[in-house]
Each structure stands twice: as structure tokens, then as C-alpha cells.
Amino acid sequence: MRSGNEPVTARSPLRLRLGLGVWGLLWALGGTVAFALVGRTGWAVACGVLLLVVAADVALVLRHMRQGAHYQPGPDVPPYEPYEPYRPGRPDRRRGGPGAP
Predict the structure, then answer these.
(1) Which distant-in-sequence residues (6+ apart) come within 8 Å of 92 by Cβ?
(2) What angle do CA 18, 58, 22 make, to 5 degrees?
(3) 44 vs 35: CA distance, rounded Å
(4) 55 occurs within a structural domain
(5) How far is CA 50 from CA 29, 46, 63, in A?
(6) Is residue 95 part of a domain?
(7) How many whole angstroms separate alpha carbon 47 and alpha carbon 34?
(8) Which of 5, 23, 61, 95 is deepest in the core (most CB within 10 A)?
(9) Domain count within the chain
(10) How much of the chain, in percent, has pLDDT values that exceed 90?
């Protein structure tokens, strides 16, 4: 939801997420290989499952990066009014109650 006060140059942290994902891939792969060599099958399987989850996340991040920037409203688009929950005793702008503009 656009509030109107976000930075104009805000960017998604996809590169950081990709870097952390690659780091996780290396550790999960190393753990899988190390535990398999030592004979700890349960831990090797756990690291292998983690490896698959991290690989799926890295693939998703790469997909989002390839899609490029999406539409963001420019400065000429007025911001949305912030959500204000109904409180008794205050005018309710959503329902057009007494005192509502």
C-alpha cells in the first residue's frame, strides 16, 4: 500500500537476498557433503532439504530480478489516505458519519 511518504529512490533488496542465498547454498552443500562423508545420514538429508529450499529461493530471486522494475506511481499521483480504524466518538470518514468531511 502506498502511503505517500516512502523514499523516491527506494529499491528492493534482491541483490542482498541473492548474495545471502548463494552463501546459504554453499553452506548447505558443504554440510550435505560433510555429513554424508562422516556417515550422519539424518543430518545429510536435513542439509540436502535445506539445499533444495535455498536453491528454490535463489531461483525465485533471479526470476524477480529478470522481470525488472514494476510500475511505481510518480510524484504526480496523490498518496493514499492512511488507514484509520473506527474509534467510537470520532467521526468516521469511511461511512460518512457526523463530522466527516
Answers:
(1) 86, 100
(2) 55
(3) 5
(4) yes
(5) 9, 6, 20
(6) no
(7) 10
(8) 61
(9) 1
(10) 49
First to last CA, the chain: 23
Residue 44, pLDDT score: 97
Average pLDDT over every residue of 34-46: 97
In a domain, 62, yes or no: yes
Asked if residue 8 belongs to a domain, the reply is no
Which residue in 54, 64, 75 sits closest to 11, CA to CA?
Answer: 64
CA 72 from chain centre, in angstroms, equals: 17
Q: Which domain holds residue 18?
A: 14-67
Cell numbers placing 69: 522494475
φ and ψ of 60, to 5 deg = -65, -40
Non-local CB neighbours of 15 within 8 Å, separated by 6+ positions:
65
pLDDT tens digit sequence for 42-90: 999 999 999 999 999 999 999 988 887 766 666 776 666 666 666 666 6
Can you give the pLDDT at residue 2?
A: 53
